[in-house]
Amino acid sequence: AQAINTGDGMHAMARLSLFRLLDRGVNSETAFKAVQLLDEASLLACEGRFIDLQAQERVDMTSTAYLKMAWDKEGALYGCAAGLGGLIAGADPEQINALRLFGSHLGTIFLIGKELCQLDAVGSLSKKADEDLMNKKKSLPVVMAFENATASGRRKLGDYYFKRVLEPDDLPGLAELVNELGGTDSARAVLETEKSSAFAALESTGLNSEGKALLAEYMSLMMESTSAD
After folding, report:
1. Residue 219 CB neighbours (<10 A)
2. Hey, how many other C-beta atoms are within 10 angstroms of the C-beta on 89?
């Protein structure tokens, strides 16, 4: 309940901050467009989180469905942030859309990178990694393991995921099975594809070389932060 309160409060604060653009000389059309971008992204993030939670009790999430969930849950807010920067700076609609696309790929990259690091951290001191796996969260490595698996491999995964409750002692074996079924390697391949797509979107923004370099550096810093989780 408090998490819902906190989220509602943060959303209200973000809207008020954007309306204060009017006090800084930004015209009303731009300010209201900024609020629209925020609200659209917030709705997508809620929808993505809903799918994320719903998938915990299912084993049929595909990689396509996962990427749509990640794009909404994480990518939408990053896309909004990048698009807002372009909007306030006076970019044209085509540039704003390219920046939003870059940001959406960036958010997806961050989520996949974080999930890969958490899987590596299972059984270590990372409480978050263990919690996600015990809650049957369908991270991309897990989704890819199900997709890659033969009938025998899916039965082995089912031995874990059809249990009513996963215990801490289950986690090392589950993480090892996900790796054996190629889930980690396949997720890394998707991550590389997302990186390439992000760079392609960045190239299409029309920013000068300095602007592109700054955003590319930001993406590198984000990847380093997931590695440090």
Report:
1. 18
2. 12
- Residue type for position 152: S
Query: Cα(60)–Cα(15) distance, rounded to whole angstroms?
Result: 37
Q: Which CATH superfamily is domain 27-227 in?
A: Farnesyl Diphosphate Synthase (1.10.600.10)
Cα 33–Cα 77–Cα 91 angle in degrees, nearest 5: 45
* 198/184 Cα distance (integer angstroms): 21
Please check whether residue 139 is in contact with residue 119, taking contact to mean a CB–CB distance below 8 angstroms: yes
pLDDT tens track for 11-60: 999 999 999 999 999 999 999 999 999 999 999 999 999 999 999 988 99
Q: Which amino acid is at 26?
A: V
Helix, strand and coil in the chain, % to nearest 5: 80, 0, 20
**Model pTM score:** 0.90
Q: Which long-range contacts (CB under 8 A, 24 or more apart) does 184-187 make?
A: 184/116, 184/119, 184/141, 184/144, 186/63, 186/141, 186/144, 186/145, 186/147, 186/148, 187/112, 187/115, 187/116, 187/139, 187/140, 187/141, 187/144
Residues 6+ apart with CB under 8 A from 123: 130, 171, 172, 175
Identify whether the C-beta of residue 130 lies closer than 8 Å to the C-beta of residue 223. no
